[in-house]
Amino acid sequence: MTTAAPAPTHAHRPVPGGPALAAVFKAEGRLFLREPGSLFWMIGFPTALLVILGLIPSFREANPDLGGRRVIDLYVPIAVLLGMIMASIQAMPPVLTSYRERGILRRLSTTPVRPPAILGAQIALHGIAMIVSSLLAITVGRLAFGVALPFAQPGYILSMLLMIACALALGATLSAVAATTKAATAIGSVAFLVMMFTSGVWMPVQTMPDLLQTIVSLTPFGAASQALDRAMLGSWPEWQHLGIMVLWAAGLTGAASRWFRWE
């Protein structure tokens, strides 16, 4: 019987070179693209939901309670966040947990390609999926429903990047605390429902009562929803919302690094 090698945490172990990392990324990319169902939920579903909502006539009419904006205008940033939720909570944790559960990460520790390489590849691929999903939602919102592009584009981009960092850190943390794939799915389902609410999928954050809006804004997706909305209107996102995302990203990254197990 082969003895499992210890987790690759020692500084004297060599770091795989560029060709090895590229090979891992290419292999993981092929596996990633072979999951059309997962790709749909990450990339296609947020835009499909946006289209369905945009077909509701009342959602395309200016609403005085929203400052003359339409409901569909609020849902483009929400669709952006929904793609991040699907990728980070529903898609990434089961993959990473299954790699650990099946011993793939343990076996990699005996090869020149260390487990962090495959972890990094998965994080990068899901991050790319988030960006593609965001661009698709913004483009369809503009072309199909005339939703204005963000007026404060630097602020919008910064908010998106911070939220992607938060989402990936959240996915890594869920992967760390879940011992099995089934556990990752169960924990992810609970987190999914919570994040759907705080991001405004069921009720745009801007339409929530003031107290609830304040509470939701303390969550990563709630803060991101507020930041993206302000950038859409042409204002720089409030620093408190950006700061909340930075704190969440840093805290979740630290938690994932501390709790993640390779076997």
How would you characterize the overall build of this protein?
It is a single chain. The chain has 263 residues and is mostly helical. The chain has one domain (27-259). The protein is built from 10 helices and no strands. The protein has helices spanning 18-33, 36-54, 71-101, 104-108, 115-145, 153-177, 181-199, 210-216, 220-233, 239-259. The protein is elongated. It starts with 17 loop residues before the first helix and ends with a helix. Mean pLDDT is 86; it is low at 1-15.
Features:
263 residues, disordered N terminus, mainly alpha
What's the SSE pattern? HHHHHHHHHH
Count of spatially separate domains = 1
Quick one: biggest sheet? none
Helix content: over 70%
**Euclidean distance between termini CA atoms:** 17 Å
Protein structure class: mainly alpha
- pLDDT < 50 runs, ≥5 residues: 1-15
* Outline: elongated
The total of beta strands comes to: 0
Subcellular location: Cell membrane; Membrane
Membrane topology: Multi-pass membrane protein
Family: Belongs to the ABC-2 integral membrane protein family.
Organism: Streptomyces finlayi
Concise summary:
The chain crosses the membrane at residues 39-59, 74-96, 117-144, 156-177, 184-203, 239-260. The chain has ten helices and no strands.
Element layout with pairings:
Elements: H1 18-33, H2 36-54, H3 71-101, H4 104-108, H5 115-145, H6 153-177, H7 181-199, H8 210-216, H9 220-233, H10 239-259
Helix pairs in contact: 1-5, 2-3, 2-5, 3-5, 3-6, 3-7, 3-9, 5-6, 6-9, 6-10, 9-10
Protein name: Transport permease protein
Keywords: Antibiotic resistance, Cell membrane, Membrane, Transmembrane, Transmembrane helix, Transport
Domain ABC transmembrane type-2: 37-263
